[in-house]
Structures are given as C-alpha cells and as structure tokens.
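Module 6 notes. Inverse folding takes a fixed backbone as the condition and produces residue identities as the prediction. Think of it as a translation problem where the source language is geometry and the target language is the twenty amino acids. Below is one complete input and output pair. Work through it position by position during the lab.
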C-alpha cells in the first residue's frame, strides 16, 4: 500500500461527495414533486407520459396499491424481456445473426434485469443482438433502478409524514426518477465515455492483425450508452463478458475513475436527499457516515490483502513487488482495483474491473460479506437507502431494549408490528443464500459446474447465491452458471432477494406512515451523532456475522490459512 494509492482513493471519494451534494437537492425536489432546473425541458414530457398512461399524478396510493403497481410493472417487464430474447433471431437489429436465447437462460436473464441484478450467465458480445442489448437490457437498467429509488421514496415519506395512509404514487415516482435523475446523468456520462475512448456504434465487429501477424475478429457495439447506465443505475451488466476489465468497456485509468464515481454517485446522493426530505440533514449524514466506515474498511482490507501478494504464486517464482496481480489489470493498479471491488459490492452494481476468483482469500471475503449483508453501503439506487433504514429500525429497537424505553426513530415509535416486518425482510437473505447453497453442495449437477473443489469451490457457490439474492450480479468467475439448475435457482434467488425483501419494507412504510410523528423529548435517543453511527455499525457486524460466520469460516477463512501454510486443497 502506498500514499499515492490512498490519495487516489481519497480523491475519487471526494469527487463523489462533491457531486452528490447538488444531486441530492435534485433528488429531494423530484421526491417532493417540486419544480427543478430540468422542469422547463422535461416537464412537458413527464405530463405527456401521464396522459398516455392515464395516471393522475396528484392521486397517491396506500402501501398495498403501491406494492401491487410495482409488482405488475415488474411482471410486465419480465414478460417483455423474456419474449425479446426468445424472438431475437427473427427481429431486426441482429447483424450478428444470433439464435434465440434458450428458455432457461432467457428466464434467468429476464429476472436478472428486472430486479436490478444483471447477473449474466452468458457473454454479451456472443449471445445478445444489438436490439436485445439496447431495447431490452439497457432500458431495464433505467427502469429497475428507477423502481428501486421509487420504493425508497415510499419509506422516506413514512418517516417524513405524520398519520398518513398514503406513501406516494409508484407510477409518478418511477417516471420522475428515470426522467429527471437517471436519463440526464446517463447522457452526460455516456458522452464522457465516448470522449475517453469507449465505443458507441452499431457496427458488429472489425478485423485486426496482431503483432504476431494473426488476423483477429473483435466484437464491438453500442457500449458507451450501456456503460453509463450500468454504473449510474448500479446495474453492472457488461456489454462484454469481461465487463469493466475489458479494454473497450474500460480503456484507461480515467474511465476507471469515472465508472467508480458513477456507481457511487446516486446512492450517496440519495442518502443526503433522505436527510433533506425529512427536514434534518444531520440524519442523512449519520447514515452516510456509517456507510462510509463500512466501505472504507472494506477498501482497506482488499488493498492490504492484494498488496501483500499470494505466497503460493511467490513460491512459483512470480515477482511479489506489485502484490497479487492474477486476474487484475495493470492499468488500474491495486488501489483503484480495491476501491472498485468494495464499491461495486457495497452497491448493487456488480460490475468488475478484476476477477474476484483470483483474489487472495481475505480480499475475496470483503465483496462476499458486502453481498451477504445485502449491498447496503452505500447500496444500490434506492435499495441501499431502504435497506440501511431497515437496519436503523433494528438498531433503535436494540437500543430501546438496553435502556428499557419504547424505541423510536425519527419521531415514529417502533413497536412489535414494525419489528416483525423488519426482521422478516432481514431474514430473507440468509434463508435464500444458505438454503440454495446447501442444496447445491449436495447435488452432483451443481458440483459439476465448479472450477475448484474444497473451500474455494464453496466460496464460488456461496458467492453466486449471495450475489443473486442481494441483486448485485457480480460473480466469483469460477462457476459455470449457465445450466438448468443454476439458471433456475439463481433466478429464484433474485426474485426473492428483490421482492420478498421489499414487500415487508413497503408494509413497514405503510405502518410507520400511519403513526403520528412525535416531537423529540429529553428521553429521545439521538440518531444524528457518533453514538448512533457506532450502534449502526455494531448491529450490522453482529447481525450478519452471526448469520454467516460458519459458512465464511468453511470458505475464505479456511482457504486463507491454507494459503499461508503454502498448501492448496
């Protein structure tokens, strides 16, 4: 680790915060329906959409109708994306002449993109036509991210309002997020990507001659536009199979910095907007401080572990001066690889600029733990905010038990119903991840997909289901997921991780919104200072380590000690 490396990390995070502050003002205006700087241009477009859809923007919904609207929209998205993949061989803009996507893979991919997961059991440049990439995948990168932030809006309103029976209008929230937040940002970032050398073309491929004199056909396509929204929407699905490690998707250190900045920007701004929306900026800062501690600790562990190198490779004669470079890109360096790794797994992005399968065990443990916790520091677009607020509800309940008072958060009393809903959401992840992982290690059809045996093989399976349930989409890169078993089970894990989690959260919003907001008193536990930040971090560590410690011990922890002893399984 070097001072220059830490300076790069600090500069990137400072740029994120500097841009997130003004963006939080825009998100707050979008949340409340106030006029903003983009209203003169996009306002008529927004109103046109409402007229076409028959939506009254002034008519709000209760939590149940809000949830049903979200589910029906997601179902329609799944059906259309599945059909597009199955029919791509007879549709236009298929210059590659690709066949229809097989049913099990189309099922997996459709669920993946409507849940903001972007898990890819295929190589984009060898499977999906230009039409499928643009009309199907890229469009859902916008819509799934907008849906996530819309659901966060519903929970924020529950804390901001008093004795209300409504949490907003899903159709209005989703439209405004896509139109005023994601679309303008994506246009700017896509143009910056093009300027920095990322291709944006409908051309299929071109021929190049290597230094050895061999002709090579290289795939190409509309990448810059997909790169922009895949990062800004914390989606992560790459046009190329190698994702952001590919020199076309991520050609330089400047594009690497831009991608990290993009994937962290909207989640950080959303947390600051939360503070503005409830009328207390300090509350948003406290939540962001807890997220920042978890993110920076993760960056530090990855940076340290990868810089220390792999003694197994050193014993084979590999120069350890640069640390562990297996599966890494030299043009990015250890520091920015560490920040990308912690950032993409601390959000629900899932894009990668290095292969986690090649990292040292403790470095690989960091993104795995981030996923097991649900990708909530700073989280996906919307999903990070509502996920962390669920943790905050649990934290104030624990604090209330310790001092013998009825727990309260932001003026809303947290009682038995709210805790049942919060714990129902929290327990979804371990049930899905550990359940499907346990089944997979018992089935030969699943074990045949592994590239490694022993602890590393367990990590590959555990990581796959953690990534799917947390709607992250990154892979350990050693598992063949394109099989009927994994296409089906990972698809179900994505569905449960998104909808079985958020339905209790929206019910929690309905329950809290109906409560009267009480003013703070001398007995109110302060939730805007260092003590609450420490409580949040403590609850996170205890809650998730207790759930996953045995599995992590059998996977990356055992592998770490094997590596130190110079052994492989």
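Target side of the pair, the amino acids:
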């Amino acid at each position: 680790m070097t001072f220059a490396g830490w300076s790069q990390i600090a500069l990137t995070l400072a740029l994120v915060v500097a841009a997130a502050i003004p963006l939080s003002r825009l998100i707050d205006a979008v949340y409340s329906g106030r006029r903003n700087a983009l209203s003169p241009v996009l306002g008529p477009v927004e109103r046109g959409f409402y007229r076409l859809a028959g939506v009254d923007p002034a008519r709000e919904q209760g939590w149940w109708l809000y949830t049903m609207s979200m589910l029906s929209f997601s179902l329609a998205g799944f059906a259309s994306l599945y059909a597009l993949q199955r029919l791509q061989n007879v549709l236009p803009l298929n210059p590659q002449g690709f066949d229809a996507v097989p049913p099990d893979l189309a099922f997996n991919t459709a669920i993946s993109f409507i849940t903001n997961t972007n898990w890819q059991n295929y190589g984009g440049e060898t499977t999906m036509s230009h039409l499928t990439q643009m009309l199907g995948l890229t469009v859902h990168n916008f819509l799934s991210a907008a849906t996530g932030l819309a659901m966060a809006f519903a929970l924020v309103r529950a804390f901001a309002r008093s004795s209300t029976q409504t949490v907003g209008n899903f159709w209005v929230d989703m439209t405004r997020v896509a139109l005023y937040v994601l679309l303008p940002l994506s246009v700017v970032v896509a143009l910056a990507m093009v300027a920095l050398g990322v291709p944006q073309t409908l051309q299929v491929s071109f021929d190049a001659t290597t230094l050895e004199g061999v002709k090579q056909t290289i795939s190409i396509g509309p990448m810059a536009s997909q790169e922009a929204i895949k990062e800004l929407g914390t989606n992560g699905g790459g046009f190329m199979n190698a994702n952001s490690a590919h020199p076309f998707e991520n050609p330089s250190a400047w594009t690497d910095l831009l991608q990290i900045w993009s994937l962290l920007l909207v989640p950080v701004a959303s947390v600051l907007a939360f503070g503005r929306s409830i009328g207390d900026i300090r509350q948003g800062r406290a939540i962001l401080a807890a997220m920042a501690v978890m993110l920076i600790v993760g960056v530090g562990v990855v940076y340290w572990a990868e810089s220390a190198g792999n003694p197994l490779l050193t014993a084979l004669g590999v120069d350890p001066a640069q640390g562990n470079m297996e599966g890494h890109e030299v043009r990015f360096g250890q520091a920015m690889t560490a920040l990308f790794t912690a950032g993409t797994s601390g959000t629900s992005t899932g894009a990668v600029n290095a292969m986690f399968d090649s990292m040292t065990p403790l470095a690989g443990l960091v993104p795995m733990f981030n996923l097991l916790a649900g990708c909530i520091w700073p989280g996906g677009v919307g999903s990070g905010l509502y996920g962390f607020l669920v943790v905050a509800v649990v934290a104030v309940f624990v604090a209330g038990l310790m001092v013998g008072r009825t727990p309260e958060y932001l003026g809303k009393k947290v009682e038995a119903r709210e805790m049942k809903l919060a714990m129902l959401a929290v327990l979804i992840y371990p049930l899905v991840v550990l359940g499907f992982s346990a089944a997979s290690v018992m089935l030969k059809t699943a074990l045949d997909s592994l590239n490694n045996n022993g602890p590393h093989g367990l990590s590959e399976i555990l990581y796959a289901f953690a990534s799917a349930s947390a709607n992250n989409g990154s892979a350990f890169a050693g598992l063949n997921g394109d099989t009927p078993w994994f296409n089906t089970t990972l698809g179900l894990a994505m569905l449960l991780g998104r909808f079985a989690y958020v339905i209790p959260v929206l019910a929690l919003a309905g329950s809290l919104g109906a409560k009267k907001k009480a003013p703070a008193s001398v007995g109110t536990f302060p939730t805007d200072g260092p003590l609450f930040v420490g409580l949040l971090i403590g609850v996170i560590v205890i809650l998730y380590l207790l759930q996953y410690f045995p599995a992590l011990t059998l996977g990356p922890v055992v592998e770490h000690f094997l590596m130190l002893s110079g052994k492989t399984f």
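Reference fact for the lab report: Residues 3-279 form one domain.
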